[in-house]
Specification:
Length: 192
């Protein structure tokens, strides 16, 4: 028996990507490998899963799975898990707290000759530009994901154009679509 136990049902499920994932930093190293760094200001329970997803998408796009690290820049102590394990699947990430790094040494590195603005803000001022923008993008992605689930629950399988519209929608237009969902009788009424 292939599965080790009786199959109740074989499921034919498509896995559409609604969100447009954007990593924080991806470096091509001198040895031809990649190094992916995610800057994280809050403790996220799903961080190992998120980095695994990023890594697999990089592998698909670039042909190599990158080395990965979460650089934690939050105020609260770092408490996020570093291991994802489910069934026989397991993935472990490296998390470093920015307070444990010597910013002066990093900024003096010849690799950062141009004094990369992002690292300068993080290490010199303890702030990241774009944090508000990142939070807004994250909120829009969350709204799009929730709206996709609600639409699927209400109307069944959705046309591809619906997923595309949700993926490119602003936070404000997602709010409007969510409001329309309450009263609409068809999917077309929501996206009119």
């Amino acid at each position: 028996m292939l599965t080790g136990q009786p199959v109740v049902e074989w499921l034919n499920i498509e896995l559409p990507m609604v969100t447009s994932l954007r990593s924080d930093l991806l470096a091509l190293l001198a040895d031809g490998n990649y190094f992916h760094t995610e800057l994280q200001s809050e403790n996220e329970r799903d961080m190992p899963e998120r980095l695994l997803l990023y890594g697999l998408l990089f592998k698909r796009r670039l042909g190599k799975f990158p080395q990965q690290m979460v650089l934690y820049v939050g105020e609260a102590p770092i408490t996020m898990p570093t291991v994802w394990q489910e069934g026989s699947g397991r993935y472990e990430i490296v998390c470093r707290d920015i307070r444990d790094l010597d910013g002066d040494v990093l900024m003096a590195s010849p690799v950062l000759e141009n004094k990369n603005k992002l690292f300068g803000d993080v290490f010199r001022n303890g702030k990241m530009e774009g944090l508000a923008e990142g939070k807004a993008e994250g909120a829009a992605e969350g709204k799009a994901g929730l709206l996709l689930r609600l639409l699927t629950k209400r109307f069944g399988p959705l046309p591809v154009w619906v997923e595309e519209r949700l993926a490119s929608a602003t936070s404000e237009s997602l709010d409007l679509l969510s409001d329309r969902l309450l009263d609409a009788g068809t999917i077309d009424e929501i996206f009119r």
